[in-house]
Design brief:
- Two copies of one chain form a homodimer.
- With 204 residues, chain A is an all-alpha fold.
- Chain A has two domains: 1-44, Homeodomain-like (Arc Repressor Mutant, subunit A), CATH 1.10.10; 46-202, Orthogonal Bundle (Tetracycline Repressor, domain 2), CATH 1.10.357.10.
- Chain A contains eleven helices and no strands.
- The mean pLDDT of chain A is 88.
Chain lengths: 204, 204
């Protein structure tokens, strides 16, 4: 791996474990055993590194959220949800210090808000598809509130787990998927509801 | 107000608006138009200020969470929820930078986790009381997942609003109460459900 790539990967690791506000470029060069000058040759400041890692995150998340228009079956939908949680975990520095990071970087804030908007649109599209298939029964205002709660849970589940003292591993991600499924189940009808209840157990 | 009190109130304001990690003791003394030496006379470091403000928050929250054992009627329960959201807003610096603040202050993390545990117990007690009154129909595992989603929503609603670019005002708090009610409604039976649906509208 080239130095530039190594800097980015190490920074991602440090941001995720220590929180972006607590990582300095000096720490990054120290951890890589390179001189601060060498790091500076590739990146003029921590913001440049942060910005490039945010590009990675944004690229991955937007590709994921580009939900196909044809209806997904229910297993696909939860697989999709699992991919979203994995991506959030991979870039958890964005989420765990989200208010702080966004307040200090106005441009990232704007891009993050666009991602949230896309997440809402993808969620609404999934819920509406369930609604037209008569699998989900809810009023429009219920769907709106449900959608908001799904995004909130997906956005902050990992922060919540960290604060509760948990190590972010596969079981924490699965539990996040489980919690989101729990939000939807009460609105589902008959067969779909049973199918999802069963699927839910797999995540416990 | 004595200087000591003024320092605490100004710090709370600055922590809430700028985020605790971005506030220095120099900024606090500057904003109060007192010398850094004068501030230092009262507080040896920012951590001392943070710790005392956390005491205030903890005191207020634990008093609130000391839910009486007799069953509350449904209006009382939502009034209680509103008080919780107000308290979270008053001390939002704890929540909006929660991962960062807790990672840097191990002792506060422990105390915050105890508050979360108390919140869960209070929520469970309310849900169980609804269950024994036959107002709520849910299995034990559903109640457990519901409880977790309620705490998550209450804990991160304000962070979510800030990231979405909203100014934290009365309408944001009300919407938080609304979102929590939305989590519970699908499990309620007949009259209670209608009552809560109506109450919910008042929060929109």
């Amino acid at each position: 791996m080239k130095t530039r790539e190594r800097i980015l990967h190490k920074s991602l690791e440090l941001f995720n474990t220590l929180g972006e506000p607590n990582v300095t470029t000096l720490l990054i060069s120290d951890e890589l055993d390179i001189s601060p000058g060498n790091l500076y040759y590739h990146f003029k400041s921590k913001i440049d590194i942060l910005s490039e890692l945010f590009d990675w995150y944004e690229h991955e998340m937007l590709a994921l959220l580009d939900v196909p228009n044809e209806p997904m079956d229910i297993e696909d939908q939860w697989f999709f949800l699992h991919l979203i949680f994995e991506s959030i975990a991979r870039y958890r520095f964005v989420y765990q210090d989200v208010v702080n990071v966004m307040e200090r970087h106005e441009r990232l804030k704007h891009r993050f808000q666009k991602i949230i908007t896309k997440k809402k649109a993808a969620t609404l599209s999934i819920l509406s598809s369930l609604q037209t298939q008569d699998s989900l029964r809810a009023s429009d205002s219920e769907i709106e509130a449900l959608c908001e709660n799904i995004i909130l849970t997906a956005t902050f589940w990992i922060s919540y787990a960290i604060v509760a003292g948990k190590h972010v591993d596969e079981s924490v991600l699965s539990r996040g998927v489980y919690q989101v499924i729990s939000l939807v189940v009460p609105y589902l009808e008959g067969e779909q509801r049973q199918q999802l209840q069963q699927l839910k157990q797999a995540y416990l």
